[in-house]
């Protein structure tokens, strides 16, 4: 028999481990150490780039198989394929609403505080160089509907080799639907998928032990390569972006969770290890597998988590949406390019499309921004050079906000499906219990620990 689609029972509170054995403590320590290393010894920090990129690569190595196994297991365990279609449709509808809200918040903030006023940059004097030139070229070559055509991979193996999440989801849904359609013949395969999921998450457990080392290398490289002075040169824009993102998470997403009778601060605390990991690696993908585990641990069905979270990484990028509206209007203000209300709304309409399907792509924020400016034509695309130096620091905030947005989106879709037990969620959040494995038979219960050898 196939394993049920419902998640495991609520975990009982685990005996508390000392704070110095918690994963988030060691990742935070690694981040601080990395900042100091990159600041005091820039050449050493720059040389540590492979340490951070290798860890992120190890996480990305697992994302495609984990997404595939989770989606297939979720679809294989539902009692109706129609329910899968409903979950997908409801997810996309919420993603559109979330993207629009994020774009509007960013647009209001940049018009209210006007961080680009007084810069008076000459667009003709701006020269695209290095990676920025390639990002603009990619953006100019990118059509607004590219995410629709790119969803079909050239080969089944290629989707996994390239780590294209949209293509993996496409294959996963096809495989899961076919597995469900063949009836009893497919039940042993569904059971096998559940067992493979347990193995995949056990591998993730091993990889996560290296999270502090990866965060140290990534942060040391960022500070060593770009310097702390880069933060102060455009501090007003950085501060506005972080402040706007915090407002969106606490107020906008907080209002959504309040309607679900869930406290946003408890939810954020429950996901603290994932947020710290994202902060250290500047990649929201690094926390995707663990995020899916924890959301299932809140009692949300596997098929809802498996469809909503991975799809949200391409279609529900709240942080990237705030960045797009802030950056586009900032460039207009800095280059003294007048934008009427109608032109800004036109920018917003294009951003709703260009912000989709870019999750996990290097330079995705810049590519989407360049695609927007090239499509509209009212703001000089070369103006992205004004913010290119600080993009690395802003990418961390984008990733953190994207993570929060996709967590809330999953709760909303679960409620829409009448599958959200707010009492259970609050019980888990208050108890601060460890999240369970993806399914009741997965076999690996509990948080990913950080084993610290005791001194003799």
TrEMBL record:
It is a multi-pass membrane protein. It is found in: Cell membrane. GO terms for biological process: L-aspartate transmembrane transport. The chain crosses the membrane at residues 23-41, 61-81, 93-113, 165-182, 203-228, 240-262, 366-390. Pfam families: SDF. GO terms for molecular function: fumarate transmembrane transporter activity; malate:proton symporter activity; succinate transmembrane transporter activity. Residues 434-456 are annotated as: Disordered. It comes from the Bacteria. InterPro entries: Na-dicarboxylate_symporter, Na-dicarboxylate_symporter_CS, Na:dicarbo_symporter_sf. The keyword Iron-sulfur does not apply. SUPFAM superfamilies: Proton glutamate symport protein (SSF118215). PANTHER family: AEROBIC C4-DICARBOXYLATE TRANSPORT PROTEIN, PROTON/GLUTAMATE-ASPARTATE SYMPORTER. This is Aerobic C4-dicarboxylate transport protein.
